[in-house]
Amino acid sequence: MNEQKEGKVAKAIEQQTSKVSSDKFLWASLGAMGVSLACKMMKKDHLALFIGQWAAPFLLLGIYNKIVKVNEEPEQ
């Protein structure tokens, strides 16, 4: 099997995201949705759209974090 090594950027992202639990990414996403809804209700449409777009990246970081943790190999 041909194993590929991670690049410097991927390693840096993994080191930072592994410090945060996956639940925090989920809560950050839900918080962004809630703040976006509140902005929309206050007729601040552009701000609502801006903040609402944060939900997907938070969820993606949470998924990435979970995949990295599941696929971690024990160091020998």
What do these coordinates show?
The chain is mainly α. The chain has a domain at 21-70. It contains 4 helices and no strands. It has helices spanning 8-17, 22-41, 45-52, 55-71. Helix 2 (22-41) packs antiparallel against helix 3 (45-52) and helix 2 runs antiparallel to helix 4 (55-71). The longest helix is centred in the middle third of the chain and has 20 residues, at 22-41. The radius of gyration is 17 Å and the shape is elongated. The mean pLDDT is 87.
Structural class: mainly alpha
- Pattern of helices and strands: HHHH
Q: Helical amount among residues, as a percent range?
A: over 70%
Query: What's the overall average pLDDT, rounded?
Result: 87
Task: Note poorly predicted spans.
Answer: none
Outline the secondary-structure elements.
Elements: H1 8-17, H2 22-41, H3 45-52, H4 55-71
Helix pairs in contact: 2-3, 2-4
Question: Key terms for this structure?
Answer:
76 residues, mainly alpha, 4 helices
Could you write a compact summary of the structure shown?
Keywords: Membrane, Transmembrane, Transmembrane helix. The protein is an all-alpha fold and about 80 residues long. It is built from 4 helices and no strands.
